[in-house]
Structures are given as structure tokens and as C-alpha cells.
Amino acid sequence: MIDIDVENLSIAFSGRAAVKAVSFHVPAGGSFGIVGESGSGKSTVLRALAGLNQHWEGQISFGGEPVGAKRDRAFFRQAQMVFQDPYGSLHPRQTVDRILSELPLVHGMDRIDDRIARALDDVALPQSVRFRFPHQLSGGQRQRVAIARALIAEPQVLLLDEPTSALDVSVQAEILNLLVALRREHNLTYIMVSHDLAVVSHMCSDVGVMQNGEMVEQVSTDRLRLGEVSHPHTQELRTLSVELEEPEEKPVSA
């Protein structure tokens, strides 16, 4: 397990500040949610952490080691990202087998067949999906494939970009509960971005609230549930959110 430190992260696009001196710490094996409205800068922070945005200032450290704008292959084995749209993030003309074999091949990993089988088991997908194409799967199944693709590299960090927002309400809780279980089983560190405070409170022990590019408050989920917040925007999001109740437990299934 590794921890994550972000200090004074600032990002600008065409001279306009999108992220302003954001700092936070995620302990090894911890879970940190970043919540905010569209345009608040939350996804921009996540993309900088993932190495997808190379134009930033400040310091980002994984496991106590600062990382630069450009990341090496070892970083992308250590930290993986799960995107919002499972259909858009999977190559439509590749089978699940091909999609899942790509990262192990790039990293020169052995026993690829065994790794694929184990990854499908981890996300509760039947082995029969292995030679199907993404369009032959449901939205929930496609997101499970995307999670399996992230896990197959044996990362220590998962960066989650609204991983349930493109899914039907009926399967959102299943995917969230799966992610909670995987963090425990694989000793992962999570950072999750969402506009939904209830989702973040289910997934994460601590939350950072973004507004206009600034992280205006950091609060534990326990304090958030009790309404013990200090910034007006946090209170506003809490009021507008669905009650901060944990999603209904459902069995993890396809």
C-alpha cells in the first residue's frame, strides 16, 4: 500500500486558473473523495494525478516519491484509472480477452491467461464474457471489465472518475459495493471524483469539496453525516444531495 500527497497543485488552461493551490493527503490504503459541481476542477485534479494532464504546478507524491509531469511505465503499473463511461473507455472492436491482455503484455507480465481469469473472478464476471465484445455486454458488465483491466496490472492505487454516473440506478449500488470490497481485498488506495455527495460518502472516509478550482473544505464522512461542516458550499451540497445514507446492499453479480 502507498500513500498520496498533493501540495499546492495549480493548473491553468489558456491563462485561466482551473485548479488553485489544492493540497490533501491520502494515507496508504485510505479512500479520499473529491466532490463538486461541474467545472469545479475535481476531474482536472484527478487527471493530473493520473499523469493525463502534464501542465501543472506544485508537488504530487506517491509513496513519498515525487512524480513529474511525465510518468514512466512503472507508475502506470502502480496507479490505474477507471473512467466514467465504460463503453467509451473500452475499444469497441476488441474482445474482453484482448482488452484485458493489453496491460500485461505492455508490462511484460507472465501467466496472462491466469491473470485474465483471476481479474474476471475479482469483478464477479463469468469466464464466458472473455471472448465477447463490449457492445454485447450490459453497462454494468462493461464497467466491471474496465475495473478488471485496472486491477490486472496489480496496482496499489485506483483513481476513480465518477465510475457509476453513466450506469443505470439499478446497478450503481452493485458497482459501488464491488469497489468497496476490492479496496479491502487488494489493499488499495482510492481517490474518487464525483458530483454525488451520497456516493462519495459511501465510498470514502474523507471528502474534499471543490468550488471554482479551490478545495474549500476537507471533512471526514462521519462529520459530514452529522452535518459538522464549516463551509457554506459544503452545506449547500449536503442539503441538495440525497440523504447521506449508504446505498442499499445488493449481492455482487453481473
UniProtKB/TrEMBL annotation:
It comes from the Bacteria. It catalyses: glutathione(out) + ATP + H2O = glutathione(in) + ADP + phosphate + H(+). Residues 4-237 form the ABC transporter domain. InterPro entries: AAA+_ATPase, ABC_transp_ATP-bind, ABC_transporter-like_ATP-bd, ABC_transporter-like_CS, P-loop_NTPase. The keyword Heme does not apply. Signal peptide: none annotated. It is found in: Cell inner membrane; Membrane. GO terms for cellular component: plasma membrane. Its EC number is 7.4.2.10. One of its GO terms (biological process) is transmembrane transport. Pfam families: ABC_tran. This is Glutathione import ATP-binding protein GsiA. It comes from Martelella mediterranea.
